[in-house]
Design goal:
6 copies of one chain form a homohexamer.
Chain A lengths: L8 H5 L2 H14 L6 H6 L3 H16 L6 H15 L2 H13 L4 H24 L12
């Protein structure tokens, strides 16, 4: 099920802007595999380019957090958003970056714990302690 | 604004089960400060005890992920759930555990990026690639 | 903070459609108090009327679930949606209908538990057991 | 589709901590059926144990709300979280506890109504009436 | 997978209230096709009638926004709620009302952009500028 | 309340990257007013730049949807995400672009209607009709 066509490699080859992004994904990842997300975004080259460029800047370029930690954050957001595709693709990505079973168990436990306390806090309407305010 | 009374220290002292949890929070954290969440939960001692015991087990006990990484995951879930209190309290906790400005910038960037791609994937109804399935 | 003006009684009196709904709210509830939700909806009489009529049909008319149970379901949805106003107004309504402290503690515990398992299930991508499918 | 392996009975038998939880689930429910959620959680025995123990305490032990009411609250949260698995399993559980078609119709109507008014309130930014504040 | 039976035309013909709604849907849309949503709602005639009547009033009757714009808003809400069925049905409806590929690309871009900034704002706890407040 | 400092104009003037973005916002909007969102993002110049550049490309540059329609989609997403700040700022932006009271009433009605049917569909687990699938 999808609301758009998923582009095949043959179709991408006939569309220079799409082909350029697909080639860059392959080069950056060192793999021939292009997952369905990019094949769906190919229907709108401008969004395909902007999304891939942002993803490279945020997730691939060296930064203050290591790549595995960023994948864990990505999974946490995807779980809370209920995005099954994102959960599957980024859990696979985290495993490829070295996620152990024990770390994955921890990730689940924190996501579950945070979800529970989020709802308790919301139900109780707890006011923010002034100690947590930065604006003074 | 709150849907329940926030217990003062004096009130807690008169309720042994609440007082025991407050004392343990202070001992574990090495601080006299009890934030509003626990003061609100005090209205239901059973939930107060279960929540604090789970939080200790998940967030405080040594485990496969370091304490700062667990706080980042907690913040990510809280942002996606829209829990303002949780965001404020766990951002403060992360800073107390050494979160730098650069790491915080990264955290924001990943949360924003994941939120955008979550919605794009959902809008397009992208099917999960068989490569991401573990049950296969 | 609001994106619209909250209508005063004097303003409502000058607008027959708004005034008719306000009068019906007062008659049905047996109270002169009109909460801010209706004062905000008054800016669009068609939505004010449709919303009040639906609410009466769903929440006030006798039905298969008792009024307090319906308020608990309403609160649960409002917590999960993160609607602070709705949580405050329906928690007050539930208390007016006899919600005890012990029942409220139970409500919180179930909301928290469900939120935690919801996220665990989502993170794990658990497939629905065929035993739970009605379509056969 | 799942991000983890679903444990078979044979695999559980070889892992004492998992086997103990599975045996307790069967004893408490008086049924041999173990649904997929527990088979997925089995990958992390600590989370399996903590989750089952909390669920027993919240959903099975006698408390101030009757078992069917607690299932309705669980379904409402699961619908608002968009957890398809949870909706299917707890709707089946509610039916097993006596949910009638008329009560189910009511449940749907309240969930729909609350979802609509939640969004209207949020869109309008309605401020909480002081009458609903408990902290005074 | 569903939690209820999806009514066939033959079953609807034997239930006058359901049959009346199905006939009206066909007349209003000028098509014999009844999509699964209505076949599922048929299990509760009161909710079927109320939902169809509201949908006609909001989405079909002439109003201040044109039909295509209303479908785009509907899709945006459905994406943010993570309702896959709603996304598929309303994307099909929008296309039937003339949605072009370029407009669809724009819709996706705005939904993605809004989702990203929503989370950034929430993470930072940005206070509303007084310039945006209507209540003065 | 905020988790970060909101930059004043004086502080921005001392930071060239921040100052350049603030100057561009003023030039593009033809107004001296910089709202709090950008003052909060200023703490991380890279995210400030990327977010503003994306926003210009998506919301300001001429495209297939008119500016007011894009604001309505933005508001719909923000309501569903529960982002109060975003709702207030984009409702003000929509009004500045000509949103009438009648159009705003329509927007609310569609958001409310979609939210209600989203939850009904999710609760019932309605399967997508094959007629809505593009992948064939």
């Amino acid at each position: 099920m999808a609301t758009v066509r998923l582009w095949t490699d043959a179709e991408a080859e006939a569309a220079p802007r799409v082909q350029a992004v697909f080639a860059d994904i392959r080069a950056v990842r060192g793999s021939d595999f292009i997952n369905n997300f990019w094949r769906g975004l190919a229907n709108d080259p401008a969004t395909l380019e902007r999304t891939w460029n942002s993803l490279k800047e945020v997730m691939v370029a060296p930064s203050a957090l290591d790549p595995l930690t960023k994948e864990l954050i990505y999974i946490a957001v995807s779980v809370a958003s209920g995005c099954s595709y994102c959960i599957h693709s980024h859990t696979a990505a985290a495993r490829a970056k070295g996620l152990t079973d024990a770390q994955y168990g921890d990730l689940l436990a924190v996501i579950g714990m945070a979800s529970e306390t989020n709802r308790l806090v919301t139900a109780l309407g707890i006011p923010v302690d002034p100690e947590f305010d930065v604006t003074g």
